[in-house]
User: Fold this.
Amino acid sequence: MPQVSLTELIAAACGGDALISFPTDTVPALAARPDRAELIFAAKQRSQTKPLILMGASLDDLWPYVAGSKDERSSWQAIADRYFPGALTLVLPASDRLPPNMNPTDPTSIGIRVPNCAIACQILAKTGPLATTSVNLSGQPPLLSFDKINTHFPQVLTLSTADIEAWQNSAQDGVSNHSNLGVPSTVARWHGTGWEILRQGSVVF
Assistant:
């Protein structure tokens, strides 16, 4: 699998035909442009009943993909203010801007997340929100090292070792530079009057 520079990784993702992987605060992300989400399903041999997560550099970048009343948005904003950036995915009603291939069996909802990871947010700020999931074949544990990703997913672009090391040495801006902690995000779904925990991760919600 080719390892590329940060600039090349961002350009490949924006082009739409590439799958990329980058560090996050949970497990490495497998990512593609939202309108090319089918690339992820194919690479992972993933059932279309399992939706992807829309990851962005900020909540403002993700709001256009979400539909809700003023009161609902206020409630969701309060949760986001408490937990974003971080290892929490909120499953909310989707707007008509969301490509249906993000969640083929239920395009009316979407999981959104802002990672607490400087390099992930740097990439997402340039690409815009991306369709994401963990890097693994469906049903298998997430791959936590880029060496293993290189071996098992040779078609996926990753950052060069030099770029990752440079980022780890320079992330001093108050945004976490912790990455790949190995525990997936907590997933909470809005049900109109409250939340249902679909997956318990590191965040106690």
